Amino acid sequence: MPSLRPCRAVLTLSLLLLSSAPLLVMADPLPPPEGEVLLRVTGNIGHPNVGDELHLDREMLMSIPSRSIETSTPWTEGVGRFEGPLLRALLEAAGTQSEHVRVQALNEYESEVPVSDFHDYDVILAIKRDGEPIEVRDLGPMFVLYPFDEQPELLNETIRHRSVWHVGSVHVP
Fold first, then answer.
1. Partner of 110 for a Cys bridge, out of 66, 93, 104, 163, CB 3.0 to 4.6 A?
2. Using CA atoms, how far apart are residues 91 and 166, in angstroms rounded to an integer?
3. Buried/exposed code over 79-94 (b: 16+ C-beta within 10 A; e: otherwise)
4. What is the pLDDT of residues 47-87, one digit of tens each?
């Protein structure tokens, strides 16, 4: 009867490799964007793709784990279905660890946001509303969106200031 030792060793090694596969994938930097750059992530990042920055186009942003949120906001009428990458997943894709980030709008307005918000709530970088890209004239091309209707305690002045519209970059100190 053949020994099972070699089979167990192969099985153990296979399981070890499979369990570390997501780490290997995340360690690979994203390629440079092919489309229009919508977001630049700068600062202390581990996975740059253009110089020392991470540049992302719409397709790349939507490839990051995302979420749809049906909510009303203080800036829009009615309830909308907003879609975009989870900000915690975006920071993971950038290969960063920080206690806060600085989100900057195209008009240079900026807000410091604690990263704990991204873990406590499903905060997204909304790039679509009701299935359509968000235009610059309508808070776009992206904005930081908290799940206001799911978490009514988020409707406060502090969170409103963190909900940057017209996002162009995220800086990690």
1. 104
2. 19
3. ebebbbbbbbbbbbbb
4. 999 999 999 999 999 999 999 999 999 999 999 999 999 99
pTM value?
A: 0.81
What is the spatial distance between Cα 39 and Cα 153, in angstroms, rounded to a whole number?
29
End-to-end CA distance of the chain: 61
Dihedrals phi, psi of 154, to nearest 5 degrees: -75, -10
Angle, alpha carbons 122-126-131 (nearest 5°): 115
Q: Is 113 in contact with 100 (CB distance < 8 Å)?
A: yes
Q: Could you give phi then psi for residue 88, rounded to 5 degrees?
A: -65, -35
Give CA 79 to chain center in angstroms: 22
Encoded tokens for 15: 């399981």
Size of the chain in residues: 173
Q: Cα separations (Å) of 53 from 31, 48, 154, 172? A: 12, 5, 31, 11
